[in-house]
# Entry
Amino acid sequence: MEGRCRLPKAVIRDKRIATLHLLPAAQTRDKTAVSPADMEKLCAELRHLFDYILIDSPAGIERGFENAIAGADEVIVITTPHVSSIRDADRVIGLLEAADKKHIRLVVNRLQPDMVRRGDMLDVPDVLEILAVELLGIIPEDDYIVVASNRGELATANPASPAAKAYKNVARRLLGEEVPFLPLEEDKGLFKRLARLFKR
# Structure
């Protein structure tokens, strides 16, 4: 943005995935160092180099948020099914609509089926009724994601991880595929059916 280097020099290539690159935010500048107009210009340049550009928005609705959405064609709102998170997501969606962002989709993260069943956590239909945007994915709570993050491993590396499967399905939906949502309690359902059989 300051013209000290060309864009390809600023981009860092991932060591494991040749087609994945990262353009980190500056650690020595505050959020006002880049304007929404700068971000639009940057995204226009990136479009010539990459098929998909994911912009990670900081928490909150200040300048960092404005910058993140400035060059975005689509927006993915990620929320947990907690009342406070839903309120924040609702506010963000209102701001996105005010900024004339048309394509807004939702990922419900860290859903815990046991808590939903007990009535201690909002269910996905409840969340969708409140937020009224298209559902892109449901990510179940999964200890593997914490372990993978702590080890610096890819979140999708473990094929047995329910969250990893859900993340992959989100990616496939972004690519335009029709992918059904995974049942969140398939294993427990199997154990319940087996238990009923043994009771007979």
Notes: The longest strand covers residues 104-111. The chain is about 45% helix and 10% strand.
